Each structure stands twice: as structure tokens, then as C-alpha cells.
């Protein structure tokens, strides 16, 4: 995230992921500390527009942009320009790349919007690859556990028979030859 921030000369960059169907969002990574971003209210109106349009959006004056409610988060964060790019997997958004500037007259350009959109696509592919690798490792781990359990299930009758025979032999040895009924 720091490289994105440096490249776009942004004041803030974060990757935000949906936490489910309830519409809540959680910062997963940022150029600043994640604790900092957890304390920041991200502009829901900017995120919702990007998600509705399934497209990256640019605002160069969010306070006066009629697409947004100039809500508390835009005012409190002193956002003067923002880019919000959805992260998509199979045409389904699962998060956004949110980039802001806070300096008066310091706005993002259309070229920076295209750069951010490309970065969001690359980030989405990376996250998908990472998730698939994690799922494969978990499936492999489960398969190994299944093989061990199957092996134990096969060996269990033999082990219990061996334990029983050892126990029986030990019991006979303890009773001695006088208790042998075959004499």
C-alpha cells in the first residue's frame, strides 16, 4: 500500500473488504497503520457509488460533488479528492481500493484513476490467488488427516488384537503353570 501511496502522491491508501452481507467494511491493509484506518470513518457514499457502478470513480471535489452526500466522513477527513476502485472476483465486488488526497487544490487526474483501477485489478488477482492457495493447503491438510484416520481405522483391529493377545499372555504368565487347564 505504501508504494501505491508513493506513486500516486496520496495522503491515504487502504484496501477495504466487505465483512459480509450486513454492509460492514473492514480495513485489511493500508499505507498507514491499520489501527489508524480503523479509527477513520471511510466515506460510505463514495464506496457505495463505486460498487453500484462496478467501476472506479474519481471525485475532485467531494464536498460539492452531487453524486455524494457531503457527509461527516468527507468533512472530517478533509478529503479534497478521492479514488475508489472496486476489487472484483468473477464480476462480484468483495472490496475496494480507497485513495485520498487532503490538500486544497491537490486533486487526482484521470490518468491516476486509470492507474488506480489497474492496481485494484492486480490486487484482486493477487488476493484471489492467495485465497486459492490457502484453500488448497487446507484441502491438502484435510486429505492428509483423512488418510491418517483411514490408516488408523485399518490398523485399529490389528492393534486391539495384539493388545488383547499380549494382555492374555501376561495374565496366563501371572497365574502360572498350575492354572493351565490343559495339564
Question: What does this protein look like?
Answer:
By secondary structure, this protein is α+β, with helices and mostly antiparallel strands. It has one domain: GAF domain (Beta-Lactamase), CATH 3.30.450. It has 5 helices and 5 strands. A 5-stranded antiparallel beta sheet has the order 2-1-5-4-3, sandwiched between helices. A hairpin with a 2-residue loop joins strand 4 (81-89) and strand 5 (92-101). The N and C termini lie far apart (86 Å).
Features:
5 strands; alpha+beta
Uncertain stretches of 5 or more adjacent residues: none
- Count of alpha/pi helices: 5
Assess the beta-strand content as a share of residues: 15-25%
The CATH superfamily appears as: GAF domain
* Computed structural class: alpha+beta
The count of β-strands is 5
Indicate the CATH architecture. 2-Layer Sandwich
Distance between the termini: 86 Å
Specify the biggest β-sheet.
5 strands, antiparallel
Rounded to an integer in angstroms, the radius of gyration calculated over CA atoms is 31 Å
The overall pLDDT, averaged over residues, is 77
Summarize this entry quickly.
With 183 residues, the chain is an alpha+beta fold. It is 51% helix and 19% strand.
Amino acid at each position: 500500500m505504501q508504494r501505491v501511496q508513493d506513486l500516486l502522491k496520496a495522503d491515504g491508501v487502504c484496501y477495504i473488504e466487505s465483512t459480509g452481507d450486513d454492509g460492514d467494511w473492514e480495513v485489511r491493509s493500508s499505507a498507514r497503520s491499520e489501527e489508524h484506518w480503523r479509527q477513520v470513518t471511510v466515506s460510505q457514499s463514495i464506496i457505495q457509488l463505486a460498487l453500484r457502478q462496478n467501476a472506479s470513480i474519481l471525485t475532485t471535489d467531494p464536498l460539492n460533488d452531487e453524486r455524494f452526500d457531503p457527509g461527516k466522513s468527507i468533512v472530517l477527513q478533509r478529503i479534497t479528492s478521492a479514488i475508489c476502485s472496486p476489487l472484483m472476483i468473477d464480476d462480484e465486488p468483495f472490496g475496494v481500493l480507497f485513495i485520498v488526497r487532503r490538500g486544497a487544490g491537490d486533486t487526482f487526474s484521470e490518468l491516476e484513476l486509470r492507474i488506480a483501477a489497474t492496481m485494484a485489478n492486480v490486487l484482486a488477482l493477487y488476493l484471489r490467488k492467495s485465497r486459492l492457495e490457502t484453500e488448497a493447503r487446507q484441502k491438502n491438510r484435510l486429505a492428509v488427516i483423512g488418510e491418517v484416520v483411514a490408516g488408523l481405522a485399518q490398523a485399529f483391529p490389528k492393534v486391539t488384537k495384539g493388545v488383547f493377545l499380549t494382555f492374555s499372555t501376561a495374565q496366563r504368565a501371572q497365574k502360572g503353570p498350575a492354572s493351565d487347564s490343559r495339564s
